[in-house]
Amino acid sequence: MSVLARYNMSGKVALLSGAGRGIGAASALALAEAGADIAVMARSVDQLENVAAQARAMGRRAIVVPCDANNAEDVSAAVQRTVDELGRIDTVISVVGGSMPQPFMNTSDKDLRNAFENNVINGLRLVRECVPHLLAASNGVVGASSVVMVSSAIGHVVGRGYVAYGSAKAALDHAVELMAADLNPKIRVNAVAPGAILTEALEIVASNPELRAMIENATPLRRLGDPDDIAAAVLYLASQASSYVTGQIIAVDGGITTTNFNFPIADL
Question: Domain named Ketoreductase: which ranges (predicted)?
Fold first, then answer.
């Protein structure tokens, strides 16, 4: 098989959460472009319909699966519907999470619980529901099925204001390593850790020329990332191009080793 052919996802089915916009939508369309049929999950039906329509225009099967990632019954039903309508699940991409930055002393127990619920528990719940179907799709072939979690650079770099979010993403990164150990050898589990990416979450900062310049100047590659930068890494990890890769956190962050956006939090 040629190297380029390893990226071909024809005949495969990908289930993506958080796929209505941003990184999730870009990843869904990258997989569709590579040949995969897709099931897109999120709460925003209109956005999902737009993503699905673009995939169908490429000749792919695409279904819209409205789902609240916080609701276990919703997630279970979404996974089953994907199998019922598309026949299988070869790869699952979890693009859920988020947490508002704030000083540690303002971070409540509820903030911490929400951060871990949104960034760790919801993603692991989806993977757990998909595992029987991933095993079935692998047909016993080592590494044929794959899981890709979308983490964050703040899971391994340091900056003020990120205690809840960064701790949750660091936990997710280690969960990826531990899931890989549990699910070897038939299911590969990896993550992408994005840096500052031009999505809606960064619009307020990116629309301020001074703040944008500050972030870009603090990034070794001197620019903000694009959702397609992450989608390309997701495609690599979802496809057989990464058939000898598992338990890895792939940083796609412009080369940062510390955060490129420290919140202006005063010393105590």
Answer: 12-200
Residue 265 lies in a domain: no
What's the pTM value of the predicted model, to 2 decimals?
A: 0.96
The CATH number covering residue 19 comes to 3.40.50.720
3-state secondary structure the chain: CCCHHHHCCCCCEEEECCCCCHHHHHHHHHHHHCCCEEEEEECCHHHHHHHHHHHHHCCCCEEEEECCCCCHHHHHHHHHHHHHHHCCCCEEEECCCCCCCCCHHHCCHHHHHHHHHHHHHHHHHHHHHHHHHHHHHHCCCCCCEEEEEECCHHHCCCCCCCHHHHHHHHHHHHHHHHHHHHHCCCEEEEEEEECCECCHHHHHHHCCHHHHHHHHHCCCCCCCECHHHHHHHHHHHHCHHHCCCCCCEEEECCCCCCCCCCCCCCCC
Residue 225 domain flag: no
Within a domain: 206: no
Please give the Cα distance from 80 to 76 (Å, whole number).
6
Catalytic residue annotation: 165
Residue at 211 is within a domain: no
Residue 142's pLDDT band (cuts 50, 70, 90): confident
Domain count, the chain: 1
Q: What is the domain extent for residue 120?
A: 4-196+230-251
Contact assessment for residue 23 and residue 149, using Cβ atoms and an 8 Å cutoff? no
